[in-house]
Amino acid sequence: MKIAAASVLSLLSLPAFAHHGIAGVGAASLNGPGAPIESATSTVLPEGKALAYFKVDDARYKTYDWAAPNAKYARYTMLGLGYGVTSWFSAYAFVPYHEKIDETGGLNSRGVADMSVMGQVGFKYDDGFKLVPDNESLDDLEDWHFSVFAGGTLPTGDANHRLDDGTIDPGKSLGFGEPSYSLGISMSKMLTDRLTLNMEASTLRFRDYTYDDGQSVRFGAENRFNTALSYRGWTLPEKRFRLDPVIELQYLSLGRDKENGVPADGTGGQMVYAMPGVRAYWQNMSFALGVKKPVWTRLNERGQQQGAEGKEKYRLIFSASLLF
Known about the structure:
mainly beta, Porin, 23 strands
């Protein structure tokens, strides 16, 4: 019996200085492969189908006396739309809204940030590599699946957004001023009829930008390697409902920022996040919820990086998607 993907999530690494939210791409029917909470997997949208996507990444930070007023939390909200151009190529566009909130006495930033675009090519291995066909059987879905994705941000946000005191803080700006570029690959495999493995490797690069106040900044490169296991748990066929527990590990390496051509202190490092969560599928909709915590960090100057990645108490990740 031929089946199409029942629910697909968006794909993109959408950056924000020192706090980077990412979304994953995945698909599952009631009996098909599972999908991660956040990382990429290899399923493309069905040809002629569209995807509406919503995501919230809410990061709460550890606070320290030396950093007062501390960064209290950052909330990254994303709206996206995807379209299956062919059975093997999907295109996406995203519009983010960022909130970066300090403790009392600090300076806050809110607003629409740089929009982003992404293209994804899906293929599989079955007696050789081939592009994803129009339809796949349940047996076909057990093959190794891969994707290559590329895209970046467009300078539509206000890079020179001024805070309440009139200053420009690149870490709280609403745009990068220049396009950024991303490239990645993903691999997915059903290990059993209930257990699915997903892996992703990706990189994100930025360009120099000179702000209206004369400072020049180039944000550090990001390199990611993520892996996830999802388990087909509770299924109600008559309701077209499925609930999967998911465990995800994410490795992130951040390069140093450069300020006026000089590597900046208090930036960059390496970290590993663990994220347990669940993904629910209902008819043509999907919902995901996960709690993400750093379990290992090696920051360059950790004593100067309050409010940076790797210094969170936790991040709460929620997403919802609708395929139509």
